[in-house]
Write a structure and sequence with these properties.
single chain, alpha/beta, four-stranded mixed β-sheet, three-stranded mixed β-sheet, 7 strands, disordered C terminus
Length: 178
Amino acid sequence: MQIVCFAVRVMRYLWAGPCTLLGLLLALVALPFGATVRLDEGTLEVAGGRFGTWISRLPRFFQFYAITLGHVILGIDHTSLLAHRAHEHVHVRQYERWGVLFIPLYCASSLLQFFCGHDPYLGNRFEREACSHGSCPGEMSAPSIPGQTSVKVVSHPTGSNIRFPNKKRKTIFLKKPQ
């Protein structure tokens, strides 16, 4: 039984391998500029240094707190990685499930949302799954609205303005304060 479990685990790493290699290349670029590395639950987390500064200088649409490529998670700093670890680990499982198909499927889901008039990030099928299992970037607490059982307020660096239902509670997406 242990051999089967080991074989399945190896297959997951191999299936996500090409995307992990892309993540390792970006990690190798970030390391000489002060980024630090940490291993956590089978993933390599890379954050800090000038990497976070570079991300903050990207056009607003491309900014992120953390991004997962296979079994490599890149973050602007380790505090952000800690806050979004559960969310990013859902993406790791998605890479294990979809392998090299994950990146084109993710992009296709975002494009579909964009052409349907929705936010390409928050409407993305893979992001909705990650948000339902882990923290959503920019998530903060909100007081309940009379007549509502619970409300989750989420802001995102893109200044999103989309609404879609969460299985557990109503979700309202607001623009990030400027």
